[in-house]
Write a structure and sequence with these properties.
The chain has 258 residues and is of the alpha/beta class. It contains eleven helices and five strands.
Length: 258
């Protein structure tokens, strides 16, 4: 091993897995080169971080696995986004995973950068057994109220799954969804399928808001995603609400239509 170049050793340490690290480290103990010893330290830190992440992902999947162990075949996680926006739909996603599926970096969508959410959205759709997204438009939100519209979005997302779930895990407070359901406070950060649903719903709605910004310019919908930023509120006062604003939400209810 001492005849290998530093770049070769660094490449080996960069790709070694946990099972081979101890042997490789022992073989390199006599190599006094500073670069080699630093590469060993980096590999150790990488493997420790990977082990920690695997443990976190197992914890994320624990509720789903417990339900599968109890006899459920399909366990879906559901989350929504856009509930508090002034414009655009409320969007829900339902996700189903196989028992052993793991996606490094999976977390509450609110804790992730847009770039990371987009990357994870692709990975979730690749890995998941099933994914379904549903939007409920502003007119329906005005007619139903936001709580009922959110429930409808979740129902539509669940109906879009290829196989009806045996059990549903939903973020936040209990919701009547027509299936055995467990509500999990902070589920988007602690339950694998809910976390994945939060990411997919967020990415899908954000893309839709970019499209709506092109159709209804002047409100900054591509950047504010329909939420009540200062610039968005000023645009509503200046132009009035657009056809994609929620007229039952203040201040849209008090402004003349676009």
């Amino acid at each position: 091993m001492h005849t290998r170049s530093l770049s070769e050793i660094t490449a080996l340490l960069g790709s070694v897995d946990e099972s081979g690290f101890a042997e490789l480290r022992d073989r390199l103990r006599g190599d006094a080169r500073v670069g080699v010893q630093r590469a060993i330290e980096r590999a150790g830190r990488r493997l420790a971080a990977e082990a920690t992440e695997r443990q976190r992902l197992r914890a994320l999947a624990a509720r789903e696995c417990a339900l599968l162990d109890a006899g459920a075949v399909v366990v879906a996680g559901v989350d929504e986004v856009g509930r508090g926006a002034l414009a655009g739909p409320v969007t829900a996603c339902a996700c189903v995973f196989e028992r052993d599926a793991g996606i490094p970096g999976l977390n509450d969508s609110k804790k992730l950068s847009p770039l990371t959410r987009t990357r994870l959205d692709v990975e979730i759709r690749r890995v998941a057994r099933d994914v379904s997204v549903a939007h409920v438009d502003p007119g329906s939100i005005d007619a139903l109220g936001i709580a009922e519209a959110t429930r409808h979005a979740m129902l539509q997302a669940l109906a879009g799954l290829g196989t009806p779930p045996d059990h549903v895990l939903v973020d936040g407070l209990p919701v009547r969804l027509g299936f055995p359901t467990t509500a999990v406070v902070a589920g988007d950060a602690t339950v694998r399928a809910i976390s994945a649903a939060s990411i997919v719903a967020k990415v899908a709605r954000d893309l839709l808001m970019v499209e709506l910004d092109e159709r209804y310019p002047g409100y900054g919908l591509a950047s504010n995603k329909g939420y009540g930023s200062a610039d968005h509120l000023e645009a509503i006062r200046r132009h009035g609400p657009s056809p994609v604003h929620r007229l039952s939400f203040s201040p849209c209810a008090t402004e003349p239509l676009f």
